[in-house]
Amino acid sequence: MGRRSPLARAPRPTAPGRHQVHFDSSVKAVDRAPIVVATDASVAAGKVGTGYLATTGETGLRAHLYPQYLTTPRVRVVVSELRAVYWGLRRVLAAHPGRPVEVRVDNLDALDLLHQWQKGGDRMPDGYETRLRSRGRKASLVKLQMYAEYTPGLTFVHEKAHVGNPLNEAADSLAKLGLRSLNGMVPATEIPRLVPLWAGGALAEYRRGRSRG
Predict the structure, then answer these.
(1) Does a structural domain hold residue 105?
(2) C-alpha distance from residue 82 to each of 17, 51, 115, 188 (Å)
(3) Hey, which end of the chain has fewer CB within 10 Å, N or C?
(4) CATH value at residue 131
């Protein structure tokens, strides 16, 4: 996938039977407006990975064991795709308040919910619990619903998966990297090197493609 750059937050240490992976980083931005954020998720064997990459350089991944109450594979995928959008948007909106943001999503069910939320809808994926989490925190999809409804200049568009778009391919690769680390196949010590490497290379490829276009 290409070459990439620096880091922001170290991953939590890898150990046999670990329950989560979390890493956020920043790489060289593509200086264009609106901001484009690509997000993706990967679900396998009771575990989920999510990844995101923005043209402003924010990037990251997460992986964790999957909540057992979300029983159907389709619901697990939709919730995971939406969580990937939440993590990407949370960083981008905090770093660049007031700028237009285009979020590219390759799952049509997740995209449909995002569009409903923009119109004031409150439907959640089947079985998703909206109750407060530990320490009184709101559920991530409730916060994403509020982002969608109340953020000016925010748009959600469909990005067809696996057709070579560098941003989407990077988000997909980051989600799978999180899963491989969770499974012990990639040491946590490699994540600070690989995330900037892959994200920076994808943005460089995206930049070249835009300049040719």
Answers:
(1) yes
(2) 26, 11, 12, 25
(3) C
(4) 3.30.420.10
Residue pair 64/48 in contact (Cβ under 8 Å)? The answer is: yes
- The whole-model pTM stands at 0.88
How many domains are there within the chain?
Answer: 1
Is 8 domain-assigned? no
List, in sequence order, the alpha helices (H) in 96-186. Answer: 108-118, 140-150, 166-182
Residue span of the structural domain in which 34 resides: 20-207
Q: 38: part of which helix (H) or strand (E)?
A: strand 35-44
| 87 located within any domain | yes
- Going across the sheet that includes 154-158, the strands are 20-26, 58-65, 47-54, 35-44, 101-105, 154-158
